[in-house]
Amino acid sequence: MRYLSTRGEAAQLGFGEVLLAGLAADGGLYTPLAYPHVAPDEIAALSGVSYAHAAARLISPYLSQTYSEDILLQQAQSAYSGFRHQAIAPLVQIDDNLFILELFHGPTLAFKDIAMQLLARMMNHILEKNNLRATIVGATSGDTGAAAIEAFRNLDRVDVFILYPDGRVSDVQRRQMTTVSDSNIHTIALNGTFDDAQNILKRLFRNAAFREKVNLAGVNSINWARVVAQMVYYFTSGVTLGAPHRHISFSVPTGNFGDVLAGYVAKHMGLPISRLIVATNANDILVRAFATGRYEPLGVTPTQSPSMDIQVSSNFERLLFDACGRDHSVIRSAFGALDQSGSFDLPAGALAAIRREFDAYSVSEVETTNEIQRTYREAGYILDPHTATGVHAARAQLKIDPKTPVVALATAHAAKFPEAISRAIGLTPQLPTKIAKGLAGKERFTLLDNNEKDIMNFICERARAVTE
Fold first, then answer.
1. Strands (E), 166-286
2. Which label site among 73, 165, 370, 427 has the fewest CB atoms less than 10 Å from its CB?
3. Amino acid 343: pLDDT
4. How far apart are CA 405 and CA 35, in angstroms?
5. pLDDT at 210 over 90
6. How far is the CA of 419 from the CAs of 94, 189, 395, 414, 429, in angstroms?
């Protein structure tokens, strides 16, 4: 499998190169030349197999010929061996045709663990094979940073630098990043928003000299390996509910668009998905874009679902690339306009193509709290605030189509957001004992201003790849 940049001015790469590269040199995102097809009988054959085996079968067509399915299976088995539920991503029914897909059974209690634990092993395998070191720089609105730190903390060939917006993540999210003492982990509290952190990250990846100096690698959701690893649980949950003989819709709490894009990939591989539902909080750029055709970031509004407090949904570029017939010039023009004037208009044909597959709902703070209360009252199930937006949007979809099951993705454990849950239902969900003990350690982080040069200097002074 070969990969091309959405902007068409970077060389095509193989999977291993894409895994390490993250962002393309031209500022675009790597995407496969084609989506491998999974036949109905192959989908049916996933029934009853372990999650690791399903991952190996579904991801292997995206790999290079030198990366065998057997190696991938070993890595998947290792990645998921520490999860707290044998199914890895179990389904729970909470209402008629309404299901929760629990993606929070990994070490940091968030869906990011499912991709990150596998990505770390894949990346380390490639680095060892080529006797290389890498410097990982990531930006996080809460969960990605903790998942990356947990996945890479014991790997000698990687140094990790995570930027998070100071004061804009929950206490649990922050401590999951700052109480890790491993010498290869560096946590940066940025005086700014997540979008500020993400913009710095993109500029670092566009800086060819810096990329080469530190052997820069990325693990944010712009990394294609993250997307393809998340595609797996759409298939496993779909098969549980009757695929390939039954259509299913998915409702996805959405910030950077990577998780719902994984559902789009699964659909284009052959999984019978009826609707892909984008659930956002007050930071509703995608809802507005789907409704009006204008992609226009506004100021970030802090909410009780901080991992979705994002205005620039980076992975949307991959969807738009497909929706406009993979026309590189359209993407260059659109995102050039975004950089220059702060917005762009979606081509009419692309907007129509997106609307054929996606719906989008903005869920207010009051609606989020009400959903937490309703689900606990009616089903005895505690939703975290992000998942609550997905469940609220799923209920709206069921009013339109009550016959098609809707799976709402539970992207985080409720215990990561105890203040929001306590306000909603008067209870404080408890962290698993092992995780709670780990968060009691001394915090270790560096506070830096929103300044690209300062962050580059901080990284260069500490990254071991620079000195080798």
1. 185-191, 216-217, 248-253, 273-280
2. 427
3. 97
4. 25
5. yes
6. 23, 22, 25, 10, 10
The architecture that CATH gives domain 91-109+224-425 is: 3-Layer(aba) Sandwich (3.40)
CA distance 345 to 333: 10
Rounded to the nearest 5°, which phi and psi values hold at 218? Answer: -125, 145
437 is catalytic: no
Eight-class DSSP state of 379: H
- The residue whose two tokens read 């990505």 is 119
Domain ranges of the chain: 91-109+224-425
How many CB atoms neighbour CB 459 within 10 A? 22
Q: Nearest to residue 204, comparing CAs of 123, 134, 132, 137?
A: 137
| DSSP annotation of 102 | E
pTM over 0.70: yes
CB 272 within 8 A of CB 246: yes
Two tokens, residue 151: 């996945």
pLDDT at 70: 94
**What does the longest C-alpha to C-alpha distance in the chain come to?**
60
Where is 332: in which H helix or E strand? helix 328-341
Residue 386 has pLDDT above 70, yes or no: yes
The H or E element spanning position 183 is none
CA distance 175 to 123: 25
Q: Which amino acid makes up residue 14?
A: G
**Would you say 351 and 302 are in contact if contact means Cβ atoms under 8 Å apart?**
no
How crowded is the C-beta side of 305, counted as CA atoms within 13 Å?
Answer: 33
Q: Of 21-25, 95-99, 211-215, give the range with the top mean pLDDT.
A: 95-99
Q: Using CA atoms, how far apart are residues 43 and 238, in angstroms rounded to an integer? A: 9
Q: Answer yes or no: is pLDDT of 378 > 70.
A: yes
pLDDT in tens, 427-441: 999 988 888 888 888
Give the residue carrying structure tokens 């993400």.
198
Read off the pLDDT of each residue in 302-319 and give the average, rounded to a whole number: 93
Could you identify the residue written with the tokens 């390490």? Answer: 20
Residues found in the chain: 468
- Rounded Cα distance, 338 and 231, in Å: 28
Say how far apart CA 104 and CA 88 lie, in whole Å.
Answer: 9
Sorted by sequence, the CB contacts under 8 Å of residue 97 that are 6+ apart come out as: 398, 402, 403, 404, 405, 406
What average pLDDT does the structure give for the chain? 95
DSSP assignment of 254-276: -SSSHHHHHHHHHHHHT--EEEE
Catalytic hit among 112, 202, 267, 416: 112
Using 50, 70 and 90 to split pLDDT, how confident is the model at 141? confident
DSSP annotation of 34: S
Token digits for 410? Answer: 């539970």
